[in-house]
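Sanity check

After download, print the first record. It should look like this:
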Amino acid sequence: IMSTKLKELRIKKGYSLDELAKLSGISVSYMNELEKGLKKNPSLDIVHKIAIALNQDIVDICYAILDK
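Expected structure tokens:
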């Protein structure tokens, strides 16, 4: 499930949902929807911001978000 993988990456880095949202410049509600799988097609810009905030390769974030 995509929400689990994204959440796992966030927790592995030691960030709360609020912290990751602030670091990435994405709203908490949007980040929450991504983790829950309610947002299924985020823009490349959103994926890039999350990758930078988590210090991860953008491909890894794509897999975490898009893996079903």
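If your output differs, re-run the checksum step. Summary of this record's structure: The radius of gyration is 10 Å.
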